[in-house]
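Suppose a classmate hands you a notebook page containing two proteins, each written out with its sequence and a corresponding row of structure tokens. How would you begin to make sense of it? This section walks through that situation. The first entry is reproduced here exactly as it would appear on such a page.
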Amino acid sequence: MRPIRKTTLALATLTLLLAGCGTEAGNGKGGGGDSVSPSSPTSTPTATGCTTRSELGATDSGDTVCLAVGDTIRISLDGTRNRPWKPVTVDGSGLEATNSGIVLLPGDASSAYKAVSAGQVRLSSQRPLCATEAGQVSCKGIQEWRVTVEVK
């Protein structure tokens, strides 16, 4: 091979190798620069397309989670004082609120639910897309977080 082809081949190989480095798991719906809770390492996809998890964070928005009656699910959304998450709302039946512990940081939303009967529930929250500080440029955008929980 001519030297120019070796260089091109080496650059192409290096580009492909580096393409996988530094990527982040998630769906990109987190909040740019804010830390988010990782998905539970015990996620298990099922045949119906939902996963079984005991913990949810901001990166899990849009997911469907399956629980068995008696299981508990915890939600931890890490926000900031200037971009706070609203409390998680529940729409549907099958879950009952349980103690989620204490939220120590302003802007975080934390909740926990126990699966008590078969049903489908939509959990949701939202926060400002941009920080809201007096005298600063702001926007009206909203970041939404939603998860569907199926209790079997």
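The notebook's second entry, a different protein, reads as follows.
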Amino acid sequence: MPLTDPNKQPDMLEKTVIHELIQNSLTIAELMGMEVDTPENGAYTPISNCSWFAGQVWNYATDENLVFEQQFDGKAHADDWGMDFLANVTSIADPGMVAESLAAPKIAGNRA
């Protein structure tokens, strides 16, 4: 997909949104108590997974609203799973949601 905005070319994405996503993923990993071998690459976690990363980059680069998350009631699981941070999690990125969003037909005047 061609990106016509010069501020959203791959090299600029690396310096802006991707850098921010890497930092956010490291914070998420820290909250989850996970160790990260290569922090310069960010952290792959159940929350900051490839769908989370790709969905956010896609939406930033294209100014679209690709749905890449599904609702998740973290409060319902925080105590059971012994992960206090989950109480603040309301959605989880999901590859199935990305696939459904990309597969949805787009009719002129109706962005389904």
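A careful reader of the second entry would note: The longest helix spans residues 17-31.
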